[in-house]
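By way of example, what follows is a protein record of this kind.
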Amino acid sequence: MGYTAGAMDRRILAALDKAPATVVLLSGPELRYTWMNELFRKLFPRIQVGDAFGTVTAQSLQFRALAERVLQTGEAAVLHEVEVELAGRDDVWFDLLVHPVQAEGSLVVVGTNVTEVVKSRRALDEQAERTRLAEERLTALLDRGPFAVVSFDGQGRVLYSAGGQLRDVGLTAGETLFEQYRDDPGILGTLRRALTGEAFSALLPRPNGRIAEVHFSPVRAEGGGIDQVVAIGIDVTARQRAQEERARIQEKMLQTQKLESLGVLAGGIAHDFNNLLTVIQGNAAVALARLPDGHPVREPIDDIVGAAHRAADLTRQMLAYSGRGRFEIRPLDLRQQVREIANLLRSSIPKKVALRIDEPPYLPTVQGDPSQMHQVVMNLVLNAAEAIGERDGDVTVGLGEEEVGAEGGGDLVGRERLADGRYVRLTVSDTGTGMDEKVRSRIFDPFFTTKSTGRGLGLAAVLGIVRGHGGALRIDSTPGRGTRFDVLLPAAGARAYPAKSGEPSASRGRGTILVIDDEEHVRVATARLLSAMGYDVLEASDGEQGAEIFKLRGGTVNAVVLDLTMPHLSGEETLALLRTIDPAVRVVFFSGYAENELAERLEPLHPAAVLHKPFTRQQLAAAVEAALA
């Protein structure tokens, strides 16, 4: 059944037939198609005039109830973006207008294709969603990470800011950056530099102690000028502190290696000097023994002996610096040590400097050499007093205990760390001028001094003595605020081989002594001293020759004076060879190194005595008498 021209103007139908929208006319209570335009027929070829609406395609079925309601009520209905499935084509969307034709009892359904609009809008929606998700992820990254992003214009006005670190940046809404940081010339200079168009990075410390690495990137306008600057700040506090800690550890290792190298050098020089001083002292003593009282040559020889003693004292300090200067080790109560030298200390420092002693009622002993500990306390107190100068001030000597654990004792000098355990702490602090980092880095170098006079071996010797006793030093010093030295020594320290000495008897020596030393001058000087004492002396230049002489002379050699360090056969190896000839052989070892260094080597060998070069006539006599006793 078609629609007649009498019911509708033919010209209108012709226009609707070519319309870019689908137009259909539904008539009667059955809502049958009575007319459809060209576009509808093209899109829906299966639907014919006379078909009932909503019975041919699934898409139409869902709209039949709506069409019936419009027919009954006479009120038009509009549906937006109705998705329609067409055979062989992508999905399309229509806006539908269902309008009643009251006079005819019919409906006009007009469908406008809005597919492109829907697709464009959905693409925009998808893009917007992707942008939203990206912004959320970026915001989460900035808020949770160590970042801050700020962009600002040429006047310093903040255009954008984000990031969890903004609270550390200290920005306040409404203020420009130049106003915000008006009291921070460093940041102001950085902002001005950024506005010149330079891209760069800078480390900016914050008042809360944090450190930010800020990357500045200029954004240029079309004309080439600076439109804005984007600044991205990253919290690098942990990284910076780790780098500083690595640098501190590396510097500490280098300092330790330097001290160890200088110690080895000082020990080697002292060893060679001791050999030379042994020759000087020995021959001078022989010369004095042969000269009558009042002889004009005695006075210059006495001067030679005095100079040799002073040189020997210098080598002892060098050995102390090298950590090889412990001679007589025994349990020490540092409280008693400090008490014994307190009066001497007070008389040695200026009267304006008050010396205070702070000691606990109980303190563990340490294993140490009394004279060496005396030197440590004296040097530290005298240096502290000199740091105060002619002003009024205090020097405090404190004693206490400290438990060293995983931290290894803290920031030490000369050692990377201390072994876990209990330590006795000797503290010497002053209210003097303090030291800057440059001076602090050199105060333990041999011969470095800030005084107009002095050899600069005081603190170098202190460090060597403390290291030689298994301890370490700590320093806390700030210019204008004084200095504090902490000496940490192991409580109940390890034993060392004690030196055997004593006063020789007045009787003339009797017996035969074999002197074995590869250093000819030392050997000859020692032989002359022994001969002057009354002994018969045999000489050998190395261990093999000494063993041969000892064997040829049978039991006539009463004692052997043996150098510890020789080529070919060492002192220990020579002693072992001598004992294969006579297990009861009596040996006096002598060496240019300190006896504590020899303790572990010599203790199993049980020598009769040990001499440290350079030795005096009396010390040599006492050692030989101890061997013969």
The first strand starts at residue 22 and ends at 27.
